[in-house]
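Reviewers asked in the last cycle whether our approach scales beyond single polypeptides. To address this, we selected a multi-component target totalling 200 residues and predicted its structure end to end. The input consisted of the following lines:
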Amino acid sequence: MKPDSEKLLLLRMSSLFGVLADNTRLKIMYSLLDSEKRVGEIASIVGMSVSATSHQLKVLRENRLVKKRRQGRENYYSLDDYHIPALLALAGEHCREEIS
Amino acid sequence: MKPDSEKLLLLRMSSLFGVLADNTRLKIMYSLLDSEKRVGEIASIVGMSVSATSHQLKVLRENRLVKKRRQGRENYYSLDDYHIPALLALAGEHCREEIS
DNA sequence: GGATTACTTGAACATCTATTCAAGTATATG
DNA sequence: CATATACTTGAATAGATGTTCAAGTAATCC
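The resulting structure, written as structure tokens, was:
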């Protein structure tokens, strides 16, 4: 790989990890593992205001980790990448070993 | 899983991702993929001051991602977890697809 | 078409974090 | 034993980030 695109890759990786490095966003991702959900639903699952949840959903969407689908006046969010569940599983495994 | 330890798990996961969410620390991890290295070596590879590098190595060590071995007046650092290379590979794969 | 629902957005504020700089420790060397 | 090397550490500062609050938009309902 060219040194230049290696730099870019590392930058993208650190920003991907940055997106995952937040408890609220992780909860959101977990809540979407099984099925798409509306903003209000997600907000009540993660125990945050709708506004805070929407802000975080925007971050996730800008980083292509979730996508949304409008239906009437409701927005349904779902996961938008097949690597992410695997990444969460690996990280979860690592951290579960630390705990027990 | 109990809801309480699930909360703890998510917290640990977000802080693990937080540690990975930094360009300097990622470079350090990559530089250690093949072999252990001294602080000065690492600093010159990542292009940072020895002090900054040492601070980041401390963060990595406190989170059990690297370990150190003293020999004389030199400190050799190496990776301290088998999940991490896999995590980096997965994240790298995800981001490489985004680039190309 | 006015009110309501379901969100989104922007600004503000507080908190966290990465680097620098100066000073400190530990080991080796002459 | 004094000096040099190889780091580590603490405080300070500057920049990034998460939440709140108030205001805005878009679709639906009566």
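Residues 3-20 of chain B form the longest helix (18 residues). We regard this as preliminary and will revisit it once experimental data from Aim 1 are available.
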